[in-house]
Amino acid sequence: MVHLYSTSRYKVNKKNLIDFAQEILNGYYVAQVSALNIIFVGSRKMKKIALDYKGENVALPVLSFSYLHDPIKDTEQVIGEVVICYPQAVLLAAERDKKVEVMMKQLIEHGIKNIFSK
C-alpha cells in the first residue's frame, strides 16, 4: 500500500502517482501488508532533512529512507519513505524539458529502487 502526503499548494495527481508507485512495488513482490510513504516537501524542509541525514546543506530533488531491516511493529510494515522536494522536481522537469508529473514518476522510481538497494 502506498501513502502519499502533500500540501494543497503542491499540484500533484495523487491517484496517478500512487498507482504508479504501487506498480513498481508489485515488481519487487512486496507483501500486501507493507506500506510505502511518499512525501512532498518544500525546499527549506528538504534542505533540513538533507543536512540532518546526509550532512549536505542543499535541497536535493529526492531522498529515500529504507526501513526493510527494522523489526515489524505494526500490522502494516512501512518499508520506506521517499521524500521529494516539489520545487526541485519542477525545476528539474523544466531543465530536462519534461512534464512535471513525468519527473515526479522518475524521482519516485529512483527513490523506490534506492530503498531496495540499501
From TrEMBL:
It comes from the Bacteria. The chain crosses the membrane at residues 20-41. SUPFAM superfamilies: Metalloproteases ('zincins'), catalytic domain (SSF55486). The keyword Nucleotide-binding does not apply. Keywords: Endonuclease, Hydrolase, Membrane, Metal-binding, Nuclease, Transmembrane, Transmembrane helix, Zinc. The keyword Nuclease applies. One of its GO terms (molecular function) is metalloendopeptidase activity. GO terms for biological process: rRNA processing. Its cofactor is Zn(2+). It holds the Pfam family YbeY. Belongs to the endoribonuclease YbeY family. This is rRNA maturation RNase YbeY. It comes from Candidatus Roizmanbacteria bacterium CG11_big_fil_rev_8_21_14_0_20_36_8.
